[in-house]
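Could you join me in thinking about how sequence relates to backbone shape in a protein? Label the sequence line and the structure token line clearly, so we can match residues to local backbone shapes. Once you have written the record down, we can walk along the chain together.
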Amino acid sequence: MAEEDNTGSTEETPPPAEAKPGPETPQPSPDEIYPDEKSTTPQVGEEAEGESPRKPRKEKRKGENITFWQGVREVIVILLIAAFVAIIVQSFFFKAFIIPSSSMSPTLQVGDRVMVNKMTYYFRKPRRGDIVVWRYPPDDPRSLNTTNLFYWPIQQILETLHLAHRGTTPFVKRVIATEGETMQLKKGQLYINGKRINEPYIVPDSSDFGPVKVPRGMFYGLGDNRPNSRDSRFFGPIPYRAVIGRVFLRWWPPSRFGRPR
């Protein structure tokens, strides 16, 4: 049985339902204008009529527009920090010296420039063979008798600032005997506790000295140029606390650059 085709059906469509009255939507009056249609206020990127175009503002970067006095202040701060660091380094870590005499020849010559390490003796005492620099002959009572823990640190800072020890020249000698040892020179030959010590670095002489026992907290220092050295044979033992540091580098002249031995 064929299906019935409803395409041509004559059945009437029901009339649409009438809309119920509701609140009326307000219509804009002719005087109302929307900002995006006729507004005379210039939008972003637009210029108002009759006005000259404005130059875009440049963003201020950090560090720009520093005044002259701000620059001067920064330079002064940098210089003060650098000076403070230099004073601390020279007072407690490293310091350069010029060899003023021939008492350490041939190891160190007149005019040699050496670097002194002040930190070495923060951790140990001077040992035989060390080349050391100390402030002045130890007959100064302050270097021998002071019990003030702040005496030497203050002296080191004042010396760096050339406010202390201006009338004295630091000595540079080689440690040959330390506390508790008995040293003696026989015809220029060194003996420690009766044992002969080989010294290949000295200018030999035929002098005699001792025997003497080195007191506690002190050492004996002699110059390598024994015939021409004013050292512990003249002014006695040197207190450890008088030592500035250990010579560890000869940096001038370049032809002699290296560690003195």
Summary: The domain at 95-256 is CATH 2.10.109.10 (Umud Fragment, subunit A). The two ends are 128 Å apart (CA to CA). The longest strand covers residues 243-252. Residues 1-13, 30-39 have pLDDT under 50 and may be disordered.
